[in-house]
## 1
Amino acid sequence: DAKTTQPNSMESNEEEPVHLPCNHSTISGTDYIHWYRQLPSQGPEYVIHGLTSNVNNRMASLAIAEDRKSSTLILHRATLRDAAVYYCILNNNAGNMLTFGGGTRLMVKP
Amino acid sequence: DSGVTQTPKHLITATGQRVTLRCSPRSGDLSVYWYQQSLDQGLQFLIQYYNGEERAKGNILERFSAQQFPDLHSELNLSSLELGDSALYFCASSANPGQIIYEQYFGPGTRLTVT
């Protein structure tokens, strides 16, 4: 499986945008880029996914580099409820199981 | 609320015992996945079932087994329990008709403590 690299932790102020980076230099052409997050004491929660083009949904935006070797999850206005561990995961059509790395622990300050 | 339910919420048992964890997927989802989350190993995929058939296997110990029933609920059986099996066990479900990537919806987890 292609690996992802994320910073261990990041801090943000409430109501400010947050950019969470992910490097995946060995990504293959069929790998989708998924983001999940895990709030304290809860199961992981799907955030967004994409293949080549940038994606937006009600939770976040996903910006994918042109060479697809990196991506950025953008939370447009961080709230205290966004404090969680964010996982960047590569997933291809061969199987749908998710391989979680260490993720980025996002702390949001009021 | 993801729509995935797991029972029980907490389970405390002794080494050597056997337990069964239960998962009901979201309505209409055919795929069920089991994951284990421990402090030292993080979140690890164990096994996947799709419409009653085993689809994929991850780092699942031989002491562990799972099945998916005709009503699509799934059970994870853990036997000869060891202290190291203490962890959070999550079930997830997705539509997954086979060739398209679908997001997974996770349940609230079962916290297993082996003493």
Note: Chain B has a mean pLDDT of 93.
## 2
Amino acid sequence: QKEVEQDPGPLSVPEGAIVSLNCTYSNSAFQYFMWYRQYSRKGPELLMYTYSSGNKEDGRFTAQVDKSSKYISLFIRDSQPSDSATYLCAMKTVGNQFYFGTGTSLTVIP
Amino acid sequence: KAGVTQTPRYLIKTRGQQVTLSCSPISGHRSVSWYQQTPGQGLQFLFEYFSETQRNKGNFPGRFSGRQFSNSRSEMNVSTLELGDSALYLCASRSAGLAVRETQYFGPGTRLLVL
């Protein structure tokens, strides 16, 4: 079993839709949670970073962490064609070991 | 601040050759990590360098090696290239200070194609 599981998609939604991206994990040592956005042929770009259970909002993006269920989500409201990218979840231990999901490919159709 | 930079951006090599990739971290960042990204495997950790010392290592063969210089710049070398080494190689840096909540920032990657 992988440390981090992420549905690869692909996910295709119409413009304006609410998008939900999810990851599950098995290691209780993960204390810090990130979402990266990666456009085609580019490096991953940090989108959201949170370290406690609950919600963190930044514009149209909301990151949600449920440590008891070992489940994290990223919600994108009012999705735009420019949101079309691969979204990677990432997790970090206190000892700075990073683990990544395989990424979910998202296409927002105008 | 300038972001993480990687050179070259694209490389084409043939089997058996060797290759060296370069990474310049964000100014002030002391830790550099390298990852291999392929469509099937996602991001796989290669190694991390801090203060010119390898701190962590992933599960890759000895053909993959790296080093870090006193200015925190890092190089990664792959010897005896195989077709399966074709991938996007990403470098990520973090400050490696006292804050445990810090995260890492990625460069644009070097896309390596082995023929």
Note: The mean pLDDT of chain A is 92.
